[in-house]
Amino acid sequence: MSQLSVLLPLTGLLLLISSTSGSESSVALPVICGTRGTDLMEDSLVVLCPPDCTQGRVSVFGTSVYASISSVCGAAVHRGLLGPSGGSVRVNRLHGQQNYMSSFAHGIQSQVLSRWTASFSLTEAVSVPLELTSETIATALPVAAKPAKKLKKPSVKKVLKGGNKDCPMDIAMVIDSSKNIGQRRFNLQKNLISKLVAMLKVGPTGPHVGLIQASDSPRTEFLLTNYTQPKELLFAIKELAYLGGDTNTGKAIMHTAETFFSQENGARRGHPRVMMVLVDGWPSDDLEQAAMLARESGINVFLVSVARPAADELAMVRDKDFMTKAVCKDNGFFSYLITSWFSTTKHVKPLAQKLCSLDSLLCSKTCYNSVNIGFLIDGSSSVGHSNFQLVLDFLGGIARSFEISDVGARVGAVQFTYDQRLEFGLFDHSDKEETMNALQRIHYMSGGTATGAAISYTTQNLFRRMGPGRNFLIVVTDGQSYDDVRLPAIAAQKQGITVYSVGVAWAPLEDLKSMSSEPKDSHTFFTREFTGLAEFIPQLVRGICRDFTENN
């Protein structure tokens, strides 16, 4: 069966409901089991589902938030709002999103869907439903009662719609859902999170918040862009279900660092990435490797420890230094202690202030999003057209490893023979795709080899006005230079430029080491064949990141 046939089952009846824009229906409208969210035209509508919607096949996509092609009644059963006997439920239309997650609940298996154009959520109906006969009809019955009072539109203060612009963070909240915390304290934890996000003032131009539960295996509950208004976000937190299991906090940090902050999952380019991890007592697994990955990925990890182990419990703690190993930096700022879940209110404001302290987020800058890389490319006659293309492919592989953007890493290129030509500067291209295209458009010059003069030219023209500590020059050459390379390379290094030399074929090892920074062995590369250049890509990327970390 094709995916399309699964996504769009025949419902037997297409229900189209129109009403005055912006109003909310207070009368339950009978529907059939196959009625989908996309069939409903109102932003908020109470529907009346028939019994036994679990008997036939109903298609449901997502968890908590459902793709609009889902069966409304099937989703209501999956959500636990309705049972086999049917009943009324309110359907709230939402924007489309990515990554609708599957789950099994109340006899309904929801399915995965990578993206859809519209969504809906479900809440309990507050109106009195109509009685449902054995034959469901598709239009509302006339009401003989008094005219219904016009409902007020839900009011959300304008200041919240945009969000707190002074806190433009992407925040992943990793909460404890283990058997150690228990249902009662889990609810107190949800209360703390709700107060915290209200204090943060989420919004399209303010902080975005997503949430992951730590248990035996981590579970992403919602992504950064699923809820960008406070009302929606608070409801999603309220509906979180307790999981139980072990406190595998390290596994949850690793999962979040690896998958959560991708642009496909809603992370915003150039916005600081924050992970706040809540732990009741102590974790069951190791945090060190996961926290290291988070730091290398530019994620600022805060750890909030609630009810720390008592002296007689320390023997059961796997790693007594788990707090210092987990955080972005062990300077006291990224660690926070709360003595009890029953006294968290006073901690909401200081926690919000920490999460929004832009200047204190030391882990935001990494080698991947902060370096300036200059490529100095030998275009002499001995290289040849086909080998020159291999050089460009090699340099493209290096550039592709970094987060090139107007607020991230930068790449520029100079080609040289006896002359020099600035192919493109560090600020000429503001994203990775433009930079990769610019590299491939470089035309082979052909001529002699004056590497020393080319280093001086690049120092003065490519890296001008750039601060030290994050500037890197990769020199690629296949032969001996006709001029001195040592003094120009020393001058470049004195200006804060770290030099890597990559030699091919007839390039003298002595010249390569004269150009490269200290220690020479880790900044000098040589291969007999141009086809061997690709093997150096991971080593060069790791070297640049190592140097960046040591210098910063």
List keywords for this structure.
552 residues; disordered N terminus; 6-stranded mixed β-sheet; 17 helices; 28% helix; alpha/beta
Tell me what you see in this structure.
Helices cover 28% and strands 22% of the residues. It has 552 residues and is α/β, with parallel strands linked by helices. β16 and β17 (420-424) form a beta hairpin. It is built from 17 helices and 20 strands. α4 (182-200) runs antiparallel to α5 (230-238), α4 packs across α9 (348-355) and α13 (451-461) runs parallel beside α14. The strands form four sheets. It has a six-stranded mixed β-sheet with strand order 1-2-5-8-4-3, covered by helices on one side. A six-stranded mixed β-sheet has the order 11-10-9-12-13-14, with helices on both faces. It has a six-stranded mixed β-sheet with strand order 17-16-15-18-19-20, sandwiched between helices. The chain has helices at residues 3-7, 72-79, 158-162, 182-200, 230-238, 249-260, 288-296, 322-326, 348-355, 367-370, 385-400, 432-440, 451-461, 486-494, 509-515, 520-523, 537-551; strands spanning 29-30, 44-49, 62-63, 65-67, 87-100, 104-105, 108-109, 113-124, 170-176, 208-214, 219-222, 273-280, 299-306, 335-338, 372-378, 410-416, 420-424, 471-477, 497-504, 524-527. Mean pLDDT is 84; it is low at 1-25 and 127-160. The protein starts with a helix and ends with a helix. 43% of the residues are buried. Residues 1-22 form the signal peptide. Pfam families: LCCL, VWA. One of its GO terms (cellular component) is extracellular region.
